Amino acid sequence: MRKFITLIVVIASVQLTKAQDLETILLASEDASLLTQNYLNPAMVGLMYSMNGGWATTAKVHKKFGFDITIGVNASFVPDAAKTFAFNPADYPFLSVASGQNKLPTVMSEDDTEATIDVSIPNGDGTSRVISFDMPGGITEDLPVNAVPAPTVQIGFGLPFKTDIKARFVPTQNYDDVEAKLLGFGLQHDLTQYLGPLDKLPLSVSVLGAFTSMSVTYAMSDTDNSDNVFVTNGEAEFKMNTWTVQALASLDFKLITFYGSLGYNNGKTTAKMKGDYTLTYDVEDSNGNQMGTVQEEISDPINLNFEANGMRATLGTRLNLGFFKIFGDYTFQKYNTATVGIALSFR
Questions:
Q1: pLDDT tens for residues 38-54?
Q2: Mean pLDDT over all residues of the chain?
Q3: Considering only CA atoms, which of 214, 217, 210 is closest in space to residue 182?
Q4: Sorting pLDDT into bands at 50, 70 and 90, what band is 66?
Q5: Which residue in 31, 32, 39 sits closest to 92, CA to CA?
């Protein structure tokens, strides 16, 4: 189990930190926040959709003191439109793309080609601070699937009044320079008991509400002395909070279960780049003649917010082999999500 928990940390954090030398974006000065937001957006949004998946594989709740242990993987597929972002020069007054292209890959693109960004910041005295840096490309080649994955380990427990409580918990884990932890809770309540004769049928109906919180911290080490960015106590911090409410229905037979749900997702993420950074620029006059270099000191330069919300609909099937279950489902939402897994369930 501990190895699987470590895998959760590795997979969930790689999409947030794999983009190499992301700190060089700070050379974009006041344009750095917007450039970072556009680059990271599909990974943040996709992870929030993935975190809301896999909470239930049947609308039928446990008998009192019944329980299950579920291991699954959710993978949210990034729409093609989100794999690139438009580079509109009007939005980036200090930047230009050396190649002249007007679209750049996001972090979730298959295109891992770096794009050279030219920076020119007027000093107000006829001179400018100038530099070039390489904008990282996509990272999906380094992921197990071409999607934003979020593995889960979950425990469900039957309470009185035909209600299940569910929990997802990953204690603080460390992997190289990454530290991550996750905590989630859910409640599922049976509605079939209020529907009279319907409780004699294999049909089950219930409602579910669930909340998940995850944090990932990445220690940014200064490994490249030639990138014009010197890092002191650098750290990237991501905090994600998601919740979902769903109405579930299932047909539960001895060997197979068919289940589905309709509901709503919501998620918010903050992404911060903390620490102290020394940026080195060349200084040029109006004719492009180099006049020397200048350094600029900045602290805690990035503070971004991401959101994901909208309706969801899920269809799935579960194979029941006694207490051993195998399940798979597909959720239709802004970032469609596939879920597969296994469970040990004792009613």
A1: 999 998 999 999 999 99
A2: 88
A3: 214
A4: very high
A5: 31
What is the spatial distance between Cα 156 and Cα 137, in angstroms, rounded to a whole number?
A: 40
Query: Is 47 in a helix, a strand, or coil?
Result: helix
The 10 Å Cβ neighbour count of residue 244 is 22
Partners of 322 in beta bridges: none
pTM of the entire structure? 0.89
Q: What are phi and psi of 61, to 5 degrees?
A: -90, 165
Contact, 85 vs 135, CB < 8 A? no
Residue in 115, 82, 8, 1 with CA at minimum distance from that of residue 51? 8
DSSP string, 99-113: T--SEEE-TT-S---
Mapped onto helix, strand or coil, the DSSP state of residue 127 is coil
Tokens of 84: 């690139």
C-alpha to C-alpha distance for 76 and 147, rounded to whole angstroms: 5
Query: For residues 341 and 54, is the Cβ–Cβ distance under 8 A?
Result: yes
* Residues, the chain: 347
**CA–CA separation, 126 and 7 (whole Å):** 54
In the numeric block, which tokens belong to residue 261?
Answer: 């749900």
DSSP run (H or E) holding 4: helix 2-17
Smallest Cα–Cα separation from 18: which of 149, 118, 116?
A: 149
**Alpha-carbon span 25 to 34, nearest angstrom:** 10
